[in-house]
Automatic annotation (TrEMBL):
Highest taxon in the source lineage: Bacteria
Presence of keyword Transcription: no
Glycosyl hydrolase 94 supersandwich domain mapped to chain residues: 12-279
Keyword field contains Repeat: no
Pfam families hit by this protein: GH94_b-supersand (PF06165), Glyco_hydro_94 (PF17167)
Glycosyl hydrolase 94 catalytic domain: residues covered: 302-688
Protein name, as recorded: Cellobiose phosphorylase
Keywords, in A-Z order: Glycosyltransferase, Transferase
Length: 768
């Protein structure tokens, strides 16, 4: 199967088959507005401000139906078709969809009429801009009608009364605009109005969805389009559409461009300002060109060249681009606490200043007693269970802090003062210590960390809901945080905290080994009732991969012990698309454990390949020196056309036990913490650019079947040009001179040299 390929040096992906195994989406966004667009123009669009106020323009996060439609009608033959083939089902003569960094262009051709549809989101405004170009290549004059249509929803929060009784929409021919309103009392002070503007006066329009669709109630082939004329309907207390009709008389070889701006606004005055910014093609094209340059520039100059071309395109372009999306939007509709901090750890590699801002934003949502919420920037506290106590949130502060420090070498960042969410303010260092103290004091009868309403796994929501259940993975995560803060304390010269962390680490390590071990692997947790989760006696959920992975990452076990555990675990969990999160999956609800046992098997952490968890295992395999196994899993979870968008890391893949198990397709594109861990696994581990406070140690861990790799890495203002090859003897040359150890000291302000070259030969033996 082949559905498309990278073009333009990997900066674009061109889809040539409109029916891949699952819809392939592109994400277009600025910090306030997010648009998802698939290869058939399906997707969703929404606005959200920093306070969490949310407005859906059309579609919803998991709604993959097509809210955007461009129909064409030949007014001589009465033939009707659509730019995107799925809308009308009419076969096209030619088709392609090109996803780029911040834009998508769909091109198709039918009966000598070629159409190009372009969509992007401007840098600041809450909206999206469409450009429709119609080319007459038929060799004769043509009379063509173009219909641009979108469903308009304008919901997003709990409204005070029924949706239909609160919305209306009306047209304004003078301003070439349709205007839509949600007039619910609960949102009158928020941005719950929207508009559609076109720079070419429209001939007809519809706002009433019922009038537009007619009796067949289908967007496939609406009667009004078949007949050739919209009905000029406004709307009142009913569902709405934005439907515009442009009648074009095209001479042979001529073209016509129609620009359409859609936006979410507070009132008509804001719509006027928005429209004025993008009133014509010149302004629109200038904005898109700026966006293209901005998105390329923020990829940075780091670049890798491996024997795997798809891997190169992912990590030179698309993983970085996706990581910027996570930085701006986290998981859409909300910013998860753990999500923001893990994303920040990955962002540190490509933009440490941005990573620091993300860390500060998370710390602003920490309470002065050290408690950290599940999520922030939420439309209501029920979203993402933001009103519940998830135990892992504080543990990720050190993860982000550590990555930023290793990237910059700047200990002074720890002295930066950040406020708490309830009262007072403190240094970043003390925010870290408050988080550790909170976790340390929140332990149960076995001396293990309490799991509360869940840990990294949100669906373990009943394990510790009564305040007694303890998490083994959570305890290992605490141990890891203690190790990290101990190292930072040593860098600072804070001997008191260094000693305290070491003492606490040894205590909880002993508790983990005593109470968390079950014959041949680590269990996951103890429930409120004292029952074990993830032990050999369990019929379902006998093994979870996270405690095994994190045990080696936290130094609870060594590489040899980890290898022994994997002899049991990997035959159980490995699949063609990576390791499943747990096995066997749960098929019966267990009120002692919670939601994970009610999720259909093979989905959403219940026996599926949850790529985020798999990325932890990749890091553990690298830590244990299992380079080939790490890369095997790495490649299995990375996107590829048979299971996902080839250019975007998905959140997970359907597991082998799912009722729909004919293929391991991804079930959630783009939004995932995996991408940050991918970045860390690629640069820190695979390429072996191991950052420390004082500099960098070069220790590549490439797979045995790669013989030559080169990469460029910008680090503290210096460009490192590194080549890796295989030979008989291990040797490292720095600027052509042999260096006995692999460490290069790099001050926080960088080396005097702007560039430095390193040749690393992986040998069977080391030089003396």
């Amino acid at each position: 199967m082949k559905y498309g390929s990278y073009i333009n040096n990997g900066l674009e992906y061109k889809i040539t088959n409109s029916q891949p195994p699952r819809d392939w989406f592109n994400m277009l966004w600025n910090p306030k507005y997010l648009a998802s667009v698939g290869q058939n123009l399906n997707g969703f669009s929404l606005y959200q401000n920093e306070a969490g106020v949310l407005t859906n323009l059309f579609g919803k996060q998991d709604d993959r139906s097509a809210p955007r439609h461009i129909y064409l009608r030949d007014n001589e033959t009465n033939d009707v078709w659509s730019v995107a083939p799925n809308t009308t089902g009419v076969e096209l003569d030619d088709y392609s969809c090109t996803h780029g960094l911040g834009y998508t262009v769909l091109e198709s051709k039918k009966n000598g009429i070629k159409v190009s549809f372009q969509i992007f989101v401007p840098r600041k405004e809450a909206g999206e801009i469409w450009s429709v170009k119609v080319f007459n290549e038929s060799g004769r004059p043509r009379n063509i009608s173009v219909f641009s249509v979108a469903k308009v929803i304008l919901d997003g929060v709990n409204l005070t009364y029924g949706y239909n009784s609160a919305v209306d929409g009306y047209h304004d021919r003078e301003k070439q605009r349709l205007f839509f309103r949600n007039r619910s009392v609960s949102v009158m002070t928020e941005k719950y109005r929207a508009f559609t503007y076109t720079d070419v006066p429209f001939d007809h329009f519809d706002i009433s969805k019922d009038v537009f669709l007619g009796h067949n109630l289908s967007f496939e082939m609406p009667d009004c389009i078949v007949k050739g004329q919209l009905s000029d309907s406004d709307a009142s207390t009913e569902y709405m559409v934005s439907a515009l009709q442009h009648n074009l008389n095209l001479d042979e070889g001529s073209e016509q461009r129609i620009n359409i701006v859609m936006g979410i606004v507070f009132d008509e005055a804001e719509a006027d300002d928005f429209t004025a910014l993008y009133a014509n093609s010149t302004r629109i094209d200038a904005e898109l060109e700026t966006i293209k340059k901005q998105n390329i520039a923020r990829l940075g100059l780091s670049e890798l060249n491996t024997p795997d071309a798809d891997f190169n395109n992912l990590f030179n372009v698309w993983m970085k681009h996706q990581l910027h999306l996570m930085a701006d939007w986290a998981r859409f509709y909300f910013k998860g606490y753990r999500d923001t901090l893990q994303d920040a750890a990955g962002v540190a590699i490509i933009d440490p200043d941005r990573a620091l801002k993300m860390l500060e934003k998370a710390l602003e949502n920490q309470k002065s007693n050290g408690f950290c919420p599940r999520a922030f920037r939420v439309s209501s506290m029920e979203v993402a269970a933001a009103d519940k106590h998830y135990s892992d949130s504080p543990s990720w502060i050190s993860h982000a802090t550590y990555s930023i420090l290793r990237e910059t070498g700047d200990l002074s960042m720890l002295d930066k003062v950040v406020s708490y969410s309830d009262n007072g303010e403190d240094t970043i260092w003390n925010h870290n210590l408050k988080a550790l103290d909170f976790l340390w004091n929140d332990r149960g009868e076995h001396g293990l960390a309490l799991i509360r309403h869940g840990d990294w796994n949100d669906l373990m929501d009943r394990v510790g809901a009564e305040g007694k259940g303890e998490g083994v993975w959570m305890s290992i995560a605490l141990a890891k945080a203690l190790k990290v803060v101990e190292e930072i304390a040593a860098w600072k010269g804070d001997t008191k905290i260094e000693a305290q962390c070491a003492e606490r680490y040894h205590e909880i390590k002993a508790n983990i080994l005593k109470y968390g071990w079950d014959e041949d692997h680590f269990i996951y947790a103890y429930t409120d009732a004292g029952n074990k989760v993830g032990d050999n006696a369990s019929e379902e959920g006998q093994v979870f991969i996270n405690p095994q992975s994190w045990a080696v990452l936290a130094g609870i076990i060594d590489a040899e012990k980890y290898e022994d555990i994997m002899k049991k675990v990997e035959p159980m969990v490995d699949t063609p698309v990576g390791p499943v999160h747990n096995w066997p999956p749960f098929t019966k609800y267990n009120k002692d454990i919670g939601s994970i046992t009610g999720i259909p098997q093979g989905n959403f952490t219940n026996g599926n390949v949850y790529c985020h968890a798999a990325s932890f295992k990749i890091a553990a395999d690298y830590a244990a020196g299992r380079n080939d196994k790490a890369f095997e899993t790495f490649k299995r979870i990375l996107p590829s056309e048979e299971k996902s968008e080839p250019y975007a890391q998905p959140n997970s893949y359907v597991g082998p036990s799912a009722l729909r198990k004919d293929r391991h397709v991804s079930d959630d594109p783009w939004r995932t913490g995996t991408v940050a861990w991918n970045m860390l696994n690629c640069f820190d581990n695979l390429l072996g650019f191991k950052r420390t406070l004082k500099g960098v140690t070069i220790n590549p861990q490439i797979p045995s079947f790669w013989n030559n790799v080169s990469y460029t890495r910008i680090f503290r203002g210096t460009t490192f040009n590194i080549t890796i090859k295989r030979g008989e003897v291990q040797i490292m040359l720095v600027e052509g001179k042999e260096q006995k150890d692999n460490f290069i000291e790099v001050p926080e302000f960088g080396l005097n040299k702007k560039e430095i070259s390193i040749d690393f030969q992986i040998g069977k033996t080391k030089t003396n």
